[in-house]
Amino acid sequence: MQIDWKEVEILNQMFSNFTEEFLAKKPCQVKPETLLEWIENNEKVLIVDIKTPKEVLLVGFTHTDSIHIPMHTLFEKENLEKMANSDYEKIVLVCRSGQRSLVATAFLQRIGFKNVFSLQGGIIELVQHIRP
User: Fold this and answer.
1) Is 58 left (phi over 0), alpha (psi -120 to 50) or beta?
2) How far is CA 117 from the centre of its chain?
3) For the chain, what is the largest distance between any 2 Cα atoms, rounded to a whole number of angstroms?
4) Where does residue 112 fall: left (phi above 0), alpha (psi -120 to 50 degrees), or beta otherwise?
5) Is residue 65 a contact partner of residue 94, using CB atoms and an 8 Å limit?
6) Digit-coded pLDDT (tens) for 10-24
7) Which helix (H) or strand (E) holds 119?
8) What is the architecture, at CATH level 2, of domain 26-130?
9) Can you give the residue ranges of every domain in the chain?
10) Ranges assigned E (strand) in 35-83
């Protein structure tokens, strides 16, 4: 096996921010009930569903302030500009369980997004909160 050490260096640098202290603070997560409050209070929140197209076919968002950008295309220039140039005060990334969206949110914060959050527990926890 041949390891791409240049790529390892890039990944190591990116993931070095995910310390226990960083993750314990949950600096970029929002609870489902908070998201629902923001929506009920008519706050300008954009929900970005980063699930795969197949996942979205099974469970997707129909909220008017939601868009689908699969995680594998999230960091394409067009999609970053779409989010950065939006009129929304907050952006909430959503996936199935909250793991992918947490990583993506941390990387978005790293490149300059300030009001971006990951939905804690993902769509699973949101559904459980709506239908306990």
Assistant:
1) alpha
2) 6
3) 54
4) left
5) no
6) 888 878 877 788 777
7) strand 116-119
8) 3-Layer(aba) Sandwich (3.40)
9) 26-130
10) 45-49, 66-68
